[in-house]
Amino acid sequence: MTRRPCVLLGAPVQEGAGRLGCDMGPSAFRTAGLAGALRDLGYTVEDRGNLTPGPCRDVSHGNSAIKFLPEVVAWTETIAKAAYEASGDGMPIFLGGDHSLSAGSMTGLSRRAAEEEREFFVLWLDSHPDFHTLETTQSGNLHGVPMAYATGREGFDGYFPANSVPVRPENVCMMGIRSVDSAERAALATAGVTIHDMRSIDENGVVPLLDAFLKRVETAKGRLHVSFDVDFIDPNVAPGVGTTVPGGATFREAHLIMEILHDSGLVSSLDLVELNPFLDERGRTALLMVDLVASLMGRRVLDRPTRSF
């Protein structure tokens, strides 16, 4: 991995989720020792504290199911600006907060990559593709729309901030998918996104699937962003999330992915999202996520401490 400074940015957004509690995520990551783990690995860490969104503007949509649209739009504007700025100073690590924060992180980082004349790639570790538009969401929870928005799907103009540099769908790889709504399935069928659901992981293992994507990033000399949702992992291992979907990645699969990403040296930014400490067990999920970040940043299996709960 690069030895650029790690820039921690708390994004305590919870308005995109279906239940309260994700706003405590940044504090949980800090309490679980994320900064210390990074420093132990030799990184310089700058914690810029928690972001605060600007004033909400008056915006509404014809889909009456949508919740907290003005608030999520304000967060998106703030996070996009912070992502763009931080990516010029080091490796941004967003401490979420629900997955709606990625609408801002991906678009801000894509703008940075475009200015550097580099391809921008996203590894999306999640049980959900989050590929709804404002028209198709039935739950109205806007943590289900960030990938659709970031890749330039129609229906966001006039509501969300203008997306000047959409992420190319063919530069997105989703792993761990196992909960997809019918509207998302139809859109993904022609979008060009690479999708490895849990059956694909079961049949092939994570190594060949991830290696193929990383070779594409390396060949393009691209910027790679990893967006890591807690519910990528099986809820028996990581219970501190409000969107539990059984059958997720195992402890070892998650660590193996992080170790392969480290070996690639390609990751330039990271989202950590959907941690809900209110639903966790004595910090178990927060501590696991910190351990996974440490694996991403270079901690080896033989360096892993023993921990009891």
Task: Give a structural overview.
This protein is of the alpha/beta class. The chain has helices spanning 25-31, 34-40, 69-86, 102-115, 146-150, 182-191, 198-204, 206-220, 251-264, 284-296; strands at 6-11, 45-50, 91-96, 120-125, 172-177, 194-197, 223-229, 267-273. It is 36% helix and 16% strand. The protein has an eight-stranded parallel β-sheet, sandwiched between helices. Strand 5 (172-177), helix 6 and strand 6 form a beta-alpha-beta unit. It starts with 5 loop residues before the first strand and ends in a 13-residue tail after the last helix.
Describe the secondary-structure layout.
Layout (H helix, E strand, L loop, with lengths): L5 E6 L13 H7 L2 H7 L4 E6 L18 H18 L4 E6 L5 H14 L4 E6 L20 H5 L21 E6 L4 H10 L2 E4 H7 L1 H15 L2 E7 L21 H14 L2 E7 L10 H13 L13
Parallel strand pairs: 1-2, 1-3, 3-8, 4-5, 4-7, 5-6, 7-8
Helix pairs in contact: 3-4, 8-9, 9-10
